[in-house]
Specification:
Elements: H1 9-36, H2 44-55, H3 57-68, H4 75-103, H5 112-139, H6 145-178, H7 188-214
Amino acid sequence: MTFLVVIPGWLSSLAVFWLVLCGLCALGLAIAVVRRGGLQPWIMGLVWPLTALYAGPLAVAAYVGRRSSVGNRPLWRSAALGATHCGSGCALGDLVAEWFVFFVPITLVGHHIFGSWVIDYIAAFGFGIAFQYFTIRPMRKDATRREALGAAFKADTASLTAWQVGMYGWMAIATFAIFGQELSKTSPTFWFMMQIAMLAGFLTAYPVNAWLIRQGIKEAM
């Protein structure tokens, strides 16, 4: 259940600043991708702007660094790129799901946030598998659609779950430890907390992606 939460002015200002900055970075990366003529695989053209929605200038720096390291990418870069790729599907799924539960509240064990997490995971899983499928399909041209879809499930399930665990962990801290109650989804501070949660998701998904790539389960991009 969401109550009125008194948010410090400085935090509200910081939230608005970061949201605007991330929006501008996402727009800038979208323009850069279009001007470049697209990326291979094409789904990466969506990954970078979506990553910028929460990572802002960090995503811009990663995009520039990725271009300079093509063909000579160490495991840590491939793992970071794999986590970012996974996170873009999660970010899109969570964005859609959070607004869905805003209009259609779902309560689980007395808290809206737990109901939101269920819908978040379902939406993030759907988008995440789709993003992975459209990465694998052009890289494995000899694979059938069913085989590519199976590979997408195999490659992204653990990564996506690890990401969501990190995200849920931070949102639990923010909700129950920092603010003591749920924030309204119309508050910039809520979305700022979600952006931090996405960065936490990256940290928990990164080692999983490194392992998946080393095991040959996930393609190194």
